[in-house]
Amino acid sequence: MSVRNGGLPRAYRGRLLTPLAAPDGGAQVRFLEDALLVVGADGLIVQVAPFAPGAFRGPVLDLRPAVLMPGFIDAHLHFPQTRIIGSASGALLDWLDRSVFPEEARFRDEGYAALVAGEFTDRLLASGTTTCVVYSSSCAGATDQLFRALLRAGLRGIAGLTLMDQNCPEALCVPRDEAIAAARDLVQRWHGEGGGLLEFAITPRFAPTCSRPLLEAAARLARDHDLLVQTHVAESPAECEATLREHPWARDYVDVYDRVGLLTGRTLLAHAIHLSPREWDRVAEARSSVVHCPDSNFFLGSGRMRLGDARARAVPVALGSDVGAGRSFDMRRSMSSAFDNALCLGDRLTPSALFVMATQGTADAIGLGRVIGSLEAGKEADFLAVRFPDHVLSDSDLLNHLAFAPETAAIKRSFVRGNPVHPRPPGAPPLIHP
Question: Apex CA 333: angle with CA 114 and CA 263, to 5°?
């Protein structure tokens, strides 16, 4: 259960910048030069309004000239890759063999996993990320340590045991029955913990490293517990070829997930660079979402995801850092890379569209759009206080600096469900107790 502020509502004053959730999935940006944000004892936003003296009966924490805005949401990153950011060892499959798999094997040591988990959550908090969707390793003990770290940090996290039972090093290969049993145990232990802040996600790494029986068993477990499914799709041409070699019974990459029951309205497909029109159509029909990871796509030379293909079919698009192929935990780096990716394809994203993508848009895509993603009455109070240079005054200038000059915008404070999570005083107890 979350620690509450003595049962009293709290109020914050500052400039305010937020998307406005819309029923059709679209969003506009609202800016208030002087705003009052009132948060109830239950962590829900009670009111967002222009500041007026005496409007709130109680103390008001004045955070001006900081800007209050929703916390960033990272829909795709890898906890075991925290320490290999920047490992330039080749394209996707070579990079996995040379950099990723040897590091992930170290996570069989729970002490090492616990150490890195603390670093991982610290990096997220310092970057203004308040919600993350995370891949662990294939080791159940490491996944347990990840959830423990998320709980201590007070973060909102969706995470899963990475499933692999073929075409990977022996140290990471976990047979189907053992992996599913471990995943089921983790669901019982962690799904819904932290007052609902923590969720378990079914996490097949990608089709080449998963047998059909493992994928089918994973789909059954997801269906039994109504769990989010996260996996990779069509990140590189070589990966697509490997997928059809391993699963010749499928017509294409998306069809692998579709036939085993993993393609649903609760599925996140990361990358989606090399999808055919048929595959895009099927993703749309299934109401699955894709996760755009432009920074890692550039780093590994995987290609450019065509946002227009998703937009034309109303496929929800989330944004992910994809650490460690992504080179930063900061979602503002991902926003900037998304701009570059679109520009290379003859498209142009506005700073406001990038801001929406990293907040409300990603919340919608991961199924939390009614809970987080914007600062509006009734939503849970996941928000930041960001300090910009004094000369940055208008909403357009704020958005430009946020997306393209993030080093000028300092994350001063972060809150999850109304609780302060960053910075934390040294030795402070966890905000959430098991």
Answer: 70
- Report, as an integer, the average pLDDT of 132-150: 98
Helix/strand/coil for 176:
helix
Closest CA to 183 of 165, 207, 200, 164: 200
Show the tokens assigned to 156.
């909102």
**Of the candidates 39, 419, 416, which has an alpha carbon nearest to the alpha carbon of residue 198?**
416
What is the pLDDT confidence band of residue 315, given thresholds at 50, 70 and 90?
very high
Q: Which two tokens stand for residue 112?
A: 């090492």
Q: What is the DSSP letter of 374?
A: S
Cα separation of 324 and 299, whole Å? Answer: 10
Q: Is the pLDDT of residue 383 over 70?
A: yes
Q: Which residue shows structure tokens 């802040």? A: 197
Residue 38 — φ and ψ, nearest 5°? -110, 125
Q: Is residue 247's pLDDT more than 80?
A: yes
> Among candidates 377, 392, 330, which has minimal Cα distance to 42?
377
Question: Was domain 10-70+374-422 assigned CATH 3.20.20.190?
Answer: no
DSSP per residue, 34-50: EEEEEE-TTSBEEEEEE
The answer to whether residue 3 scores a pLDDT higher than 60 is: no
For residue 425, pLDDT beyond 70: no
pLDDT digits (tens, 9 = 90+) for 194-232: 999 999 999 999 999 999 999 999 999 999 999 999 999
Q: Domain 72-365: what homologous superfamily?
A: Metal-dependent hydrolases (3.20.20.140)
How far is 170 from 166, CA to CA, in rounded Å?
A: 9
CA distance 60 to 270: 41
Q: Where are the domains of the chain?
A: 10-70+374-422, 72-365
Q: Say which residues have a Cβ less than 8 Å from residue 134's Cβ, sequence separation at least 6.
A: 77, 78, 79, 146, 157, 158, 159, 160
CB contact at 8 A, 1 and 195 = yes
Residue 234 token pair: 């069509």
Q: What pTM was estimated for this model as a whole?
A: 0.95
